Amino acid sequence: MRYRRQEAGTALLFLAPALVLFAAFVVYPIVYNVQASTLRWDGVNVGQFVGLGNYKELLEDPVFVTTLRNSAWWILLTIAPQAIIGFLLAVALNRRLRGRAVYRAIFFIPAILSPVVVGIVWQRILDPFNGVVASVGRLTGIDVLTQPWLSDPSTAIFAAIFVNVWMWTGFSMLFYLAGLQLIDTSVIEAARIDGATGLQLMARILWPLLRNTHLSLLLLGVIGSLKTFELVYVLTEGGPNHASEMLPTYTFKQAFQLQSVGYASTISVVLLVVAVVSSLSMVRAFGSGFLTGDET
Amino acid sequence: MVRSSKRYVGIAAGAALAVGLSACAGGSTDESEGSASGTGGASTVTFRSWSPIEQTTAQMVKAFTDENAGTSIDATVFNYPEYLVDLQTRASSNTMPDIVGLQPGALTQQYRDKLMPLQQCASDTWGSDWQSKFYPIGIEQARMGNPDGDENFYALPLLVQTVNLWGNSEIFEDKGVTAPTTWEELESVVKKLSGESYAPFMLPAKDSWLRNVVFLQIANNIEPGLVYQAEDGTDSWTNPRIVEAFEYWSKLFTDGIAQKGAIGLDAYPSGANQFEAGNAAMIPLGAWWIQQSDPSREDLPPLSEGMAGYEPFLFPTIPGGASEAQYVGGIDVALGISKDSANPDLACKVLTDWIAGAGAQKLVNTFNDLPAVTGMNPETFTSDKQQEMWAMFTEDWMPKVQWSRYLESPKVDTALGDALAGVATGDLTPQQAAEKVQSAQDAAS
Fold first, then answer.
1. What SUPFAM superfamilies does the database record attribute to this sequence (chain A) (predicted)?
2. Do B261 and A127 touch (CB under 8 A)?
3. pLDDT tens, B173-215?
4. ipTM score here?
5. Looking at the domain B161-328+404-444, which fold is it?
6. Residues in chain A closer than 8 A to B427 (CB atoms)
7. CA–CA dist B136, B147 (Å, integer)
8. A35 — contact with chain B (CB < 8 Å)?
């Protein structure tokens, strides 16, 4: 009994640094945020307790509804295209190909650029007055290219999603390349001997064997979508008229432009709940093997 | 093992709770617990702001420390959004810098309780008639939003500005047109300049601040001062004259005055770069555009050389509105001193030096914007044209600025920006836009 207590004490000492950091940098901000969400507070002066008032207000806030809808679009329209295009690029660049390292680097470069730079560049590319896309449209007579994609409320969010896909597809490609290189080549050779065509090989052998990569990308994609800030802020500032607003951009505006830190904390709490629930749901649905690396 | 795990979880939760209880959100900070602001010693003050830019701030710091041996200034300049985050975090953790950059109205009011009244500092430095040194709009805006009866100055203006239009002189000359002074002339000039590779009227309307200042110029040209009456509750945003201002804003888009996709173009860097590259004949910006020909800049684009290619003019008058274009503007950046500054005397000395001393001269030399005090001029101009423009801004326009480029409440200001975006995209009619701003006004008051 004494030995077990000693053992537990030792274990606790080993765990202590991590527990302290976890408490200080994860648990404390969450507790603080939840508490702040019950206040009408500007972040500087004394707040006024409003209970669940901010939550009630949030449910009636049409911009909040827009942010939820945009997050749903973002998740749907970024994860699948990034995965499919990334997978196809990875398969193509996993073969012996002259200059494949250069191609890999080219496709990956957007992922390491600052979203601010990407935002400014694409804003100019998509500028309907003087941008490259509109100029090509006018020269070729393709009217659709001259549309004000970022300034039309009905298309702004989709234009931002398109830029996001362009930016992050190389990241998915890198994940799939790593996954492909872990696949036993004898499995692929066996499939070829059995007469599998290239398409069959991709669809029935490689794709299923990359399950953990798909799930990791899915999890990262969902969390990344919910956290999206810089790209949208630079491209559209969440506009026009909140049409491309995301939860983090709206949180930032409320906290620092409208001096409503209490309300912004409420949005953050909702964001946290959505992120935790979606992550846990995925782990529950697919098992935790894709996170731990264990086969499931 | 399960029991041990539970115990560890319990310890973590306990630690979190303890930390949480020790520093709650929204509470007042016990002054006795907090340390005095500023991190330097007795001869050091800290300064944080988003403006002036870093290189200019460094020159101002050097000018002050050269004249005041043994002192030092720890200065950090951020971009504006980052600065707001930094300031809020520092203010709520009692680590506020000695001197802070502020905007008049909501931002100054948010930090009012943490700022030192500055009239004593001003009076000690400049004498009892110190207010007469400043442009009237700067003095008025410095106290914007103060509670009734509170006559303190929690911030003093450092730089001021007008908001106005700029024209491309080369295009105007080439097409034989002059800067429009009336709405009809604006329409006619835009028509004459259409069909070229440049935008006749480039409106970078992605930014809420720019939408608002253009609207305020329109609204004041229709019925001077009415929007401020709507904001203080003595009139209404749904007043037909304000609705008319929304209609004229709408016309910029529906009548093809603004370029296609205007609501997606930001003022900086895109709009400004395009104007400087000669891709626009007119653009709404402000007096600060004169810095395009800052003497320290090299390899200037041809239009910016000595401001050769630019000319400022006021927003055209509106049919049935004021007979003369109105001057809209105000404080660009103001400075405040933390109430808890460890060295308020030195902070005061720095602040007043930067507003009207050797540091201010360095600032003015860069044409960053217009000085808040009258009578300060750059030591070097890049051309006679720039000197004439400077004289016009500082001697003719700035003293006449009567209407603020800001609204007092950030919520109403944001609601106005949103409403203008809604009108621009066709989501809202002018009447609906006015009603939306009025709703925000009702909620905020």
1. MetI-like
2. yes
3. 999 999 999 999 999 999 999 999 899 999 999 999 999 999 9
4. 0.77
5. D-Maltodextrin-Binding Protein; domain 2 (3.40.190)
6. 153, 241
7. 20
8. yes
